[in-house]
Automatic annotation (TrEMBL):
Domain of life: Bacteria
Histidine kinase/HSP90-like ATPase domain residues: 26-140
InterPro entries per record: Anti-sigma-factor_SerPK, HATPase_C_sf, HATPase_dom
A Pfam family assignment: HATPase_c_2
Name recorded for this polypeptide: ATP-binding protein
Entry GO MF terms: ATP binding; protein serine/threonine kinase activity
Keywords: ATP-binding, Kinase, Nucleotide-binding, Serine/threonine-protein kinase, Transferase
């Protein structure tokens, strides 16, 4: 089992979030919009909507393109309270080839892809991933400015 955490304080609001909710979606490209719609319903504070939509789109797309979830599998998206905000988790069915989850890396200036996790790193207060026997969970947290729960 691998657990990696990164921290960066980019987005802060004063919202509250107090319930756990999740949805399981087919691992197909058309379901990225379903994941965004799910988040908009789950997160009450409109100040978090834009960044949450962008980050879940990037992680969901990675799950579909780079993991077994995109080969007829499923992706689970969860939202729950975190210590000082909300936590969004995207659980996939594990990497296709290398056996290791994707990590952010520097891209060529004109590259048309490969910036998703860099965007997550820049905009999330904290983010990371857990790799285990059943797949990988990539997560990010957005701060709401007060303890939750």
């Amino acid at each position: 089992m691998m657990d990696v955490t990164r921290s960066h304080g980019a987005i802060t609001t004063t919202a509250r979030f107090s319930q756990d909710t999740s949805v399981t979606l087919p691992g197909t490209p058309d379901q990225v919009s379903a994941a965004r719609a799910f988040l908009l319903r789950a997160i009450e504070d409109p100040a978090l909507h834009d960044v949450a939509e962008l980050l879940v789109s990037e992680i969901m797309t990675n799950a579909i393109v780079h993991t077994e979830s995109g080969r007829g599998g499923q992706v689970r998206v969860s939202v729950r309270p975190a210590d000082t905000g909300i936590r969004v988790e995207v659980e996939d069915e594990g990497p296709r080839e290398s056996g290791r989850p994707a990590v952010p890396r520097r891209q060529e200036e004109l590259a048309e892809a490969g910036r998703g996790l860099l965007i997550v790193r820049l905009l999330a207060a904290r983010w990371g991933f857990r790799a285990g026997g059943n797949g990988t969970t990539t997560w990010f947290e957005l701060d709401t400015g007060r303890p939750t729960g």
